[in-house]
Amino acid sequence: MPLNNPSPRGGRTGLTVVAVIAALSLIAALVAGGLWLSERGEAGSVRAERASATELNTAYRDFAKEVMTDLMTIRQDTLKEDVDKIVSKIEGDFSEQFAPRRDSYEEVVKTTKVAAEGTVSAAAVEKADNEQAQVIMAIDQTIANPRSEKGQDRQYRIRVTVNRHDDGGMKVSGVNFIP
After folding, report:
1. Distance, CA of 117 to CA of 151 (rounded, Å)
2. Are 80 and 106 in contact (CB under 8 A)?
3. Which contiguous run of DSSP H or E holds residue 106?
4. Does residue 176 contact residue 157 with C-beta atoms inside 8 Å?
5. How far is CA 5 from CA 10, 11, 84, in A?
6. CA-to-CA distance for 60 and 79, rounded, in angstroms?
7. pTM reported for the whole predicted model
8. 8-47 pLDDT, tens digit each
9. Cα 78 → chain centroid
10. Alpha-carbon distance 90 to 74, whole Å?
11. Quick one: which H or E segment has residue 161?
12. Which of 48, 107, 113, 139 has the maximal Cβ count within 10 Å?
């Protein structure tokens, strides 16, 4: 004859086992939820850092393109203003080389009546951090002067060093031609 009446002691043991399993399951769920939230927060932080780095790289690239377009474009009627604009955007070794020679540069441009149009055809940040970037670019330039019937097309590959200051402002400190 089967026993339909479990002993009171066996029922309590079963209940205790179920309660322990339920408590462990709850703890496991809380730990898993906490880990998931932590990972999600870290992933959000990584996404934010990448977005910030991308924005900074875009700013470096755009500034380098602006300065090199200014440098490679020569217009007779706005020469002094154009050179002033370039000088205001450079520093360091590049400024030490360019700024003292600006008068002779302007004189040669006026005497030869040369004009040029520079266009950055491609640019990319090679490496960057919060303080400095190396930007590589391809520049196309068309040079014209009264002695030549047609303009001369030239292409350059250049590495530009851009420095970022504490106030967020940027300046170019180096321009190196890449063979």
Report:
1. 10
2. yes
3. helix 102-112
4. no
5. 10, 10, 101
6. 26
7. 0.70
8. 555 577 777 777 787 887 787 778 777 777 777 676 665 6
9. 31
10. 17
11. strand 152-164
12. 139
